[in-house]
Write a structure and sequence with these properties.
Oligomer: single chain
Family: Belongs to the LysR transcriptional regulatory family.
Shape: rod-shaped
CATH class of the largest domain: Alpha Beta
Strand content: 25-35%
Organism: Sphingobium quisquiliarum P25
Protein name: HTH lysR-type domain-containing protein
GO molecular function, one term: DNA binding
Distance between the termini: 53 Å
Pfam family, one: HTH_1
CATH topology of the largest domain: D-Maltodextrin-Binding Protein, domain 2
Helix content: 40-55%
Number of domains: 3
Number of helices: 9
Length: 290
């Protein structure tokens, strides 16, 4: 039994006439007649009663019509699914992201991506940039949003999609909390809260402080930026955080612009070899959204 035969059967059932069915199918009538006879012979049952004014379904034909329609619908859906998969519009995409991407970048990208690729299943995983790069190389993730530059050589390709700058995150009780800007050197005697040593922000903060003429007094380290902000709220110290964090700063914390700009960048990362079409589509959308 072929899908073509089922399509002929359904069309003939709907038109009730070989001539009209052949016209709808854009074939001549004799091949249609032969195909229906072969289908009935294969099934061992008549599907139509033939009459001078057309055809009507037999009980066997009536009982099987909806199943034939469903089979054709499933076949059409199969073709569409194959097409969507071939062009990166269907499948499962594993996205790694750094915590700071949740402030503004990730929600914006996910909204745009779901609108453009609604049939793709997104699996999101928060991790450090180093872990994301490692998992991309090990094919445990498909694409990543990472803090640049990566601290370790990794088999990934990156491009900048979200340039930003660091601000001083201060408890409201700080004498600099209400200032328009602050010199980084003025914070030299303040205890600093840093992200963990594998974080890019850790090294960027240390480098910025060194350029300002001091080594920070490290009071605490935290794995996630949200934890850093919570510790600042508790009055345990200050930190340098991306300005994008302003949308999620908790009550009791102020972000103040640094007098000397300290740039930071978020990038999209792909494995250097074997990037999937789904991942390349995500990276292209992320790049276009800059």
């Amino acid at each position: 039994m072929e899908l073509r035969q089922l399509r002929y059967f359904v069309t003939l059932a709907e038109t009730g006439n070989f001539h009209r069915a052949a016209e709808r199918l854009n074939i001549s009538q004799p091949p249609l007649t032969v195909a229906i006879r072969k289908l009935e012979a294969e099934l061992g049952a008549a599907l139509f009663d033939r009459g001078a004014r057309g055809v009507t379904l037999t009980p066997a034909g009536r009982s099987s019509l909806e199943i034939a329609r469903a089979a054709l619908a499933q076949a059409d859906r199969f073709r569409e699914t194959v097409r969507e998969g071939a062009v990166g519009e269907r499948g499962r995409l594993r996205v790694g992201f750094v915590g700071s991407a949740t402030f503004e970048l990730l929600p914006r990208l996910i909204t745009s991506y779901r609108r453009r690729y609604p049939a793709v299943e997104l699996v999101l995983e928060e991790a450090t940039s180093v872990d994301i790069a490692r998992k991309l190389a090990a094919t445990e993730l498909d694409v990543g949003l990472v803090r640049l530059p990566l601290l370790q050589i990794a088999a990934v390709d990156t491009r900048v999609i979200d340039p930003d700058e660091l601000h001083a995150a201060l408890p409201v009780g700080s004498p600099f909390a209400d200032a328009d800007s602050v010199e980084l050197g003025d914070l030299a005697q303040q205890p600093f809260i840093l992200q963990s040593r594998i974080s890019v922000l850790h090294s960027i903060t240390l480098t910025a402080c060194q350029k300002a003429g001091f080594m920070p007094i490290v009071a605490q380290e935290a794995a996630q930026l949200s934890a850093v902000l919570a510790l600042i709220r508790s009055g345990l110290g200050v930190a340098l955080v991306p300005s994008r964090a302003a949308v999620s700063v908790p009550q009791g914390v102020r972000l103040v612009r640094l007098a000397q700009q300290v740039p930071v960048q978020t990038g999209v990362a792909l494995p250097r070899e074997g990037a999937t079409l789904l991942a390349r589509n995500f990276a292209a959308l992320a790049s276009d959204s800059k």
